[in-house]
Amino acid sequence: MSQDSHLLDGKFLPEQPIHPEGEAFFSQLTEMLDGQPKDPASVERSLSGWDGLLEKIAAELYHVGSMILGGGEETILLIEHVVANVDIPACSDALDARHKSRLALGADAISVLRKRDPASVAAPAEEEGPVSCIEDDDLSAAGVTHAELERMLTAPEDQHLRGWLEGLPVSQRTIFVLRAIGGLSSVEVAVLLAEHGGAAAQDWTPDAVRSSFRQALCSLASQLIHATHGK
User: Fold this and answer.
1) CA distance 121 to 169
2) Phi-psi category of residue 70: left, alpha or beta, with phi > 0 → left and psi -120 to 50 → alpha
3) Where are the domains of the chain?
4) Half-sphere exposure of 28 toward its Cβ, with a 13 Å CA cutoff?
5) Tell me: the pLDDT tens digits for 113-145?
6) From the CA atom positions of the chain, what is the Rg in Å?
7) CA of 44: how far to CAs of 30, 32, 89, 224, in Å?
8) How far is residue 99's CA from residue 85's CA, in Å, rounded to a whole number?
């Protein structure tokens, strides 16, 4: 994989477009959250007709959260907490709301991981040097394209990807998911780890996140090549 800074600092994958009704739903929520008391019946009327979109938003968040924490009740409760606590009025539009919800998801997920095992999200003892990796030409020679890699990462239910993720160290898996699937930057992930990972995680830096992300990319590229050669 290429190691240029744009790949490691910018969006790893193109952002998925907002649902066609996303902006209208965002406007509706913004109007509701005006600081005035609302009775349950009014809230129910305002949200009527949006059930499908609400489910889609929750499913997108669950897709990301379950890759970090695993599926189950704990992840469902985390998603409910994120949806209930994102500050919609402070968001500029639907895209901003989605981004802030993923930041909140990352913060909550890292807090859960810290409670499970503080050492699992600890910062590396020292900055790691450059990681040798498979180059783009090698991927092409093996018949693996970036388009195929993107399809693998964005498939809602990809057991091969999940199996590979489960084999990664916890911090590396978290970084990869938040960067490649959640669309967060290396700087944002470093801040989330340092602020929510406890004392052992306070020394996470953007460079350390980039290094860990690069290692995960190399691991995934190697797996794809081995899988292609095994066909």
Assistant:
1) 9
2) left
3) 5-229
4) 16
5) 999 999 999 999 875 554 556 555 555 655 556
6) 19
7) 15, 11, 19, 47
8) 14
pTM, two decimal places: 0.80
CB atoms within 10 A of CB 134: 20
Q: What does the alpha-carbon distance between residue 231 and residue 98 come to, in Å, rounded to a whole number? A: 38
**How far apart are the C-alpha atoms of 16 and 183, rounded to whole Å?**
10
55 CB neighbour count, 10 Å cutoff: 10
- Tell me what pLDDT residue 3 has: 41
Query: Would you list the DSSP string of 90-150?
Result: G-SSHHHHHHHHHHHHHHHHHHHHHHH-GGGGPPPSS---------HHHHHHTT--HHHHH
Alpha-carbon gap, residue 193 to 206, rounded angstroms = 10
